[in-house]
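Q:
My hope is that you can spare some time for a protein that puzzles me. I hope you can help me see how the letters and the tokens relate. Thank you; the sequence and its tokens follow:
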Amino acid sequence: MTDLDSRDFTEMTNARWFKKAIVYHILIDRFAGFKSGDWNKSEFLGGNLKGITEKLGYLKDLGINTLWLSPFFKTSAYHGYHVVDFMKVEPNFGKIEDLKELIKKANDIGIRIIADFVPNHCSKHHPFFLEAQNNKNSQYFKWFIFNKWPNDYLCFLDVKELPKLNLDYPETRDHIVNAAKYWLSMGIDGFRLDHVMGPKHSFWKYFTKEIKATFPRAVLIGEAWLEGVRFKHLKTIQIKKKFVRWLLGVSQDSVQKEYYGELDGVLDFRFLELVKIHIARSRGSGHSEILGPALNRHFAGYPKDYFLATFLDNHDMNRFLFECNNDIEKLKAAATVQFQLEQPVIIYYGTEAGMTHNKPVVVNKPLSDLEARQPMIWQNPNLEVFNFYRELIKTRVRNGFL
């Protein structure tokens, strides 16, 4: 019997297991199995699902119990967020059999897998969008939102590469929901939901109801992030009372709270803001005297049954070590705070190996995010940082978080 099989029945009827998740966030193309290549170009380096399977021993040794995979669907971009087929595995990442093998072998050693899911938009190279652009009478014309056909359409913010899906149209909505169900049926344990501010709240209520009816244990965690959103983008996002709130000053906390009752939780960007202010950018070591009360106030503002998954960095921002001028002690301090909280914790691949970079990631600056997406350093990891993370995880287990 595996760790997954031994869960009690009440836990298996909902997503409460995620409360104790120690998540390892992987960008598939850059983690394992990649060939030598020029990482600072927007192209596939060859990282794949088999490579991840081969590194399960490393992940088990680290102590994590959940993997978060970047989108593995057929895509026109190495990172996977430009989807061209929601129902197929990207050939550069492998085959459906490789995904099934990864799921099985991970589950056998007590590791669950959640996947990045992108319901708001697709690639402009998606065949449905191409057909809608070429033929106004296409069955897929209503799948998108054309202001003036064929080249003026709503998209993800103002990124023309990513046309926005019309999730008000039942056929589009159900295609996305059925795609999510398909991957859950393969053994995926839930989703990190990209750009949840894009679809309407009515969609999320429908999506969650449909998913939970068949997969009650599936966890649904939203990315509700204000960074990079400007007033001109409000026509593409669907937060409540968006124009009035924007004029008055919408806060990250208020946006995160908005999805309570619709999703199981959200990524906690406000936690990250506080840690950056009081640790990464602070002078001296007195940060805990201010940070502790600030975090207490932050978490007190949320319902107890709402997951606030904490993280120090991800694929869209500077690595934490870069933020603190490569001060390993500050990284340790931040990770210690993170692991003492009774919330799910997320480690971005390579953070536990001391990965950093030389140039900053600048929101809306093309290709600058490649700095935070460099290939995993398998040859010369920082063992001091790795061992520190491993001990943090062991301590978390001993203290009853798992």
Observations:
- The chain has a mean pLDDT of 94.
- Residues 9-117+169-398 form a domain with the TIM Barrel fold (CATH 3.20.20.80).
- The two ends are 18 Å apart (CA to CA).
- The first strand starts at residue 22 and ends at 26.
